[in-house]
Automatic annotation (TrEMBL):
Keywords: Chaperone. GO terms for cellular component: cytoplasm; nucleus. Coiled coil: none annotated. Transmembrane segments: none annotated. GO terms for biological process: proteasome assembly. It comes from the Eukaryota. Belongs to the POMP/UMP1 family. The keyword Mitochondrion does not apply. InterPro entries: Ump1. This is Proteasome maturation factor UMP1.
Length: 141
């Protein structure tokens, strides 16, 4: 049980594989969907601050669960994790726009204004909406 407020400064070294980005039929790296490969990003770890920022939300969630466990008992974090898993499941098609307001309320993001709140306009997105690829990805999960 850890009451860590900020993530650790040093990221854990992991080996990266192109198995997750391989094409299902050809077996090679799928450049059109996942971009070009870079040996530098596969070998060198990122900046420690980048690791801290990527792990910030998860560390805060673990802190909230540990504090609820100490304050209310074991049932409180179990209920919080159950609510998060239920709300996290999407019932819509993946390419339809949706806001997950319930998840924002559970995570405490309804009280803050982040850049996603005003720069997350789907009409300004440069991503192509490939319905077939999105449904394949949803079915493979």
């Amino acid at each position: 049980m850890s009451f860590r407020i900020a993530p650790s400064a040093r990221p854990e070294l992991t080996t990266k594989s192109t198995f997750d980005t391989s094409h299902s039929e050809f077996g090679s790296h799928d450049t059109l969907r996942y971009g070009t490969r870079s040996i530098k990003t596969e070998v060198t770890p990122g900046h420690p601050l980048e690791h801290r920022l990527s792990q910030w939300g998860e560390t805060q969630w673990e802190l909230k669960l540990n504090m609820a466990r100490q304050t209310y008992g074991m049932h409180a974090p179990i209920r919080m994790m159950m609510e998060r898993s239920l709300v996290g499941k999407h019932g819509r098609m993946p390419v339809l726009p949706s806001s997950n307001l319930h998840m924002d309320i559970l995570m405490g993001k309804d009280e803050t204004i982040d850049y996603e709140d005003f720069l997350n306009d789907p009409s300004l997105s440069t991503d192509m909406l490939d319905i077939h690829a999105a449904m394949e990805k949803k079915l493979n999960l």
